[in-house]
Backbone:
């Protein structure tokens, strides 16, 4: 799977309140409506700058804070194709895979705002077209690849009715 | 090879021996979900094709994030929660009963050796009761509501060995803030934290819950403690379900063992807008504040309210400070009422919220700060916009530091008020 788009740079420790503040849930339950406020607390113009397929590119500990699955859902609904970061908070990482948003753990240090990127999820590579460089991606555990290929956890359950994961030896 | 608490609990629930790094499918003992999630876990449960819960006695819905139902949208969401609980016959804690992280331990739903998940990141709180508990998103919760199972990566463990006795005026909150400042906000990401040593044994259960509650603020998946005689005494009468406490073996393999001597620790404050931006109170004394919150699943248990009341007793908060008080649960509120603690806090000028997440989660719409306001709170997060206004500044501290600061109108050293 290949994804192509522009990089939008964020720093370290972008938390889930930064991604989507909890105050918005009092006026709407529509995720698409909520996605208009993506990064609202730290970069209110962000949603107006992005084009479909673009990437969020961040430093360490992306998605720290609350367990809200709203965060990866609104990133996906805003049209972004993946989040690239040096590191992710673990609940966000799991939630992203569960909702079918690719999360790419790699060295993002040399990527600059506006760089044209191509992410090859199968080969595990991020190519920086603007700079002519590439970095390797930390591979996802097999269980997450299985869930992603089904389109997320909801789709996995719709398909199988329960957990049906080849990569886990249930041992009993 | 010896095992850690995390390896033992996950192994037992997976029905096989496990070691850190392995991925297992494990049976969960209890699932908790809150009203604050968008979408709700119960909506994803339906979307996944869920018809009935794997076990309605092992699933609790808690209305705590917006208990005062501030808007029609929220009111309609709460209605969905109530309807689902009625249809499925699961456990429901209504608005006003308290914060999920106080209710689950208090009502005996979580016991030593258990494996528990909840749709709130502070689900790690029950680690103080020797429970492997962790926060999950609504999809993971819904999958477990259907199947009774979830997959877990068995985490490595960082062991915090906490030696010495906390000085007067220095509390569990100061200790956990100090640890988070020391290892940073992602210092324990993908790992379990284990807190042992004299400093932990000396803490009450209320204090221990404060520490485990904030494990996620260092990125940890769980914040585990051993069960000792205090734990067993606290659990007495809360549940008739048998349980088996778990300890790490002497030859267990830890990712790291970090030792701290707590006997010289001073009150600590996390500065805006990061939980790991922690300094000794001496470095921020005199910073003017407009709001003081004794709130949240972190620090609004009986002991916390009692400490605050002992400082505020017979005094009145600074005229330019609003003091919000939100007891952790109805039983905490009732006991504080019986003991005169609430009276003291209200006479001092306290404004009472609904037990739950009031004045902590921005979604509660209670105690929202104004632009430029400086808020000192006993909560667990000081992220920008946490109290629903990104133009406010939030400081985290112990109930004693918050109470002393409320009196003085600026960040104060609580030790002068503590006998």
Residues:
């Amino acid at each position: 799977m290949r994804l192509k788009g522009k990089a939008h740079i964020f720093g370290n420790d972008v938390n889930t309140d930064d991604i989507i503040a909890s105050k918005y849930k009092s006026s709407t339950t529509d995720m698409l409506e909520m996605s208009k406020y993506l990064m609202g607390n730290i970069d209110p113009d962000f949603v107006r700058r992005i084009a479909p397929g673009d990437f969020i590119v961040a430093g360490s500990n992306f998605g720290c804070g609350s367990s809200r699955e709203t965060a990866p859902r609104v990133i996906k609904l805003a049209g972004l194709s993946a989040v690239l970061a040096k590191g992710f908070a673990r609940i966000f990482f799991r939630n992203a895979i569960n909702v079918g948003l690719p999360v790419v753990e790699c060295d993002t240090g040399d990527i600059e705002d506006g760089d044209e990127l191509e992410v090859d999820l199968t080969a595990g590579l991020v190519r920086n077209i603007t700079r002519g460089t590439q970095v390797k991606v930390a591979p996802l555990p097999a269980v997450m690849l299985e869930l992603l290929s089904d389109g997320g956890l909801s789709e996995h359950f719709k398909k199988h009715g329960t957990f049906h994961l080849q990569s886990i030896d249930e041992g009993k | 090879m010896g095992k850690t608490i995390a390896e033992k609990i996950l192994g037992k629930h997976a029905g096989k021996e496990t070691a850190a790094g392995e991925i297992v499918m494990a049976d969960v003992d209890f699932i908790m979900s809150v009203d604050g999630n968008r979408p709700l876990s119960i909506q994803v449960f339906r979307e996944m094709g869920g018809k009935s819960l794997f076990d309605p006695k092992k699933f609790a819905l808690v209305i705590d994030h917006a208990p005062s139902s501030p808007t029609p949208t929220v009111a309609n969401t709460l209605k969905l929660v109530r309807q689902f609980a009625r249809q499925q016959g699961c456990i429901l804690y209504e608005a006003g009963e308290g914060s999920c992280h106080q209710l689950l331990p208090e009502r005996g739903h979580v016991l030593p050796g258990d494996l528990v998940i909840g749709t709130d990141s502070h689900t790690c709180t029950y680690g103080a009761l020797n429970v492997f508990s962790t926060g999950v998103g609504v999809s993971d919760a819904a999958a477990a509501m259907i199947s009774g199972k979830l997959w877990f990566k068995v985490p490595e463990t960082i062991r915090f060995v906490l030696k010495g006795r906390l000085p007067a005026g220095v509390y569990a909150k100061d200790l956990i803030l100090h640890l988070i400042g020391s290892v940073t906000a992602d210092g324990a990401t993908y790992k379990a934290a284990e807190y042992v040593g004299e400093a932990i044994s000396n803490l009450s259960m209320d204090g221990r819950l404060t520490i485990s509650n904030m494990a996620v603020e260092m990125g940890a998946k769980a914040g585990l403690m051993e069960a000792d005689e205090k734990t067993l005494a606290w659990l007495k009468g809360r549940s008739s379900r048998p349980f088996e406490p778990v300890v790490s073996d002497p030859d267990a393999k830890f990712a790291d063992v970090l030792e701290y001597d707590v006997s010289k620790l001073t009150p600590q404050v996390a500065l805006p807008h990061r939980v790991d931006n922690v300094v000794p109170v001496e470095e921020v004394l005199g910073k003017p504040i407009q709001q003081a919150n004794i709130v949240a699943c972190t620090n609004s248990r009986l002991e916390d309210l009692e400490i605050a009341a002992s400082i505020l007793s017979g005094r009145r908060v600074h005229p330019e400070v609003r003091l919000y008080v939100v007891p952790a649960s109805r039983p905490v509120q009732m006991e504080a009422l019986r003991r005169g603690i609430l009276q003291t806090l209200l006479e001092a000028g306290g404004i009472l919220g609904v037990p739950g997440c009031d004045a902590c989660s921005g979604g509660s719409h209670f105690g929202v700060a104004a632009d430029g306001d400086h808020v000192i709170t006993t909560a667990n997060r000081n992220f920008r916009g946490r109290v629903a206004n990104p133009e406010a500044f939030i400081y985290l501290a112990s109930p004693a530091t918050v109470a002393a600061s409320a009196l003085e109108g600026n960040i104060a050293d609580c030790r002068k008020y503590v006998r």
Notes: The longest strand of chain B covers residues 157-163. Chain B touches chain A through 60 residues (CB under 8 Å).
